[in-house]
Amino acid sequence: MQSSIHSPVVRVEHLSKVYGSAEAMIRALDDVSFEIGKGEFVAVMGPSGSGKSTCMNLVGCLDRPSAGSYRFADVEVGKLDGDGLALLRRQFIAFVFQSFNLLARTSAVENVELPLVYMGVKRSMRRDIAIGALQSVGLEHRLRNTPAEMSGGEQQRVAIARALVGNPLLLVADEPTGNLDTKRSNEIMDLLCALNEERKLTILMVTHEPDIARFAKRVMLFVDG
Length: 225
Ligand code: ADP
Ligand code: MG
Prior knowledge:
Layout: H1 2-6, E1 8-19, E2 26-37, E3 41-45, H2 52-59, E4 67-72, E5 75-76, H3 82-92, E6 93-97, H4 108-118, H5 123-136, H6 152-164, E7 170-174, H7 182-199, E8 202-206, H8 210-213, E9 218-221
Helix pairs in contact: 4-5, 4-6, 5-6, 6-7
Bound molecules: adenosine-5'-diphosphate and magnesium ion (MG).
């Protein structure tokens, strides 16, 4: 019990990220340190431009830090090359964004199958896994529909099913309710809370809305990187 609490999924120490060079340098992240343990649900809040998305991109292994250390599940991310980063992402990290990033004219079940194709899962197994993921987000009646035929809330559920299908260690969600009304936002947050509690899914979520951050169990506030 103790060891699971004390072995973090994310361990960030003195992390900095600088964009540009010389006279046009922007310090987007300035000496940030934090840990996220397995099964935690953490929200990141802060004003526009404070470095939230930069931090998500680093924690999600989409980008490498300029300085400091980031250990994901005890792997030093700054030491990996592009292929190493991609491998880590594909195996262990899933993303949900404000814009749902689905293929608009491809059925829900095919959208959810896509990560399994990249993971090398056999065609004969992909369909069943994708259907199971769509069932777990309450969309078993919408398998053949395309995102173009769905509401925003339903599209975000498809995106969450797609994120879950590879059984990730960490879910990174950048403004997941940013395009949704209050009712749909609350439904999506209830779903994320259930995934966190029932599957012990570790979640790091950015939001600028206090009502949304309240669903998380811990809130980190960003100011000027
Ligand atoms: P937030 O998500 O909190 O709004 P960001 O992490 O997107 O903040 O941005 C932090 C700072 O870094 C801002 O000043 C932004 O303009 C700058 N920034 C973000 N991404 C880039 C980039 N790819 N190139 C240059 N500057 C960037
Ligand atoms: Mg942002």
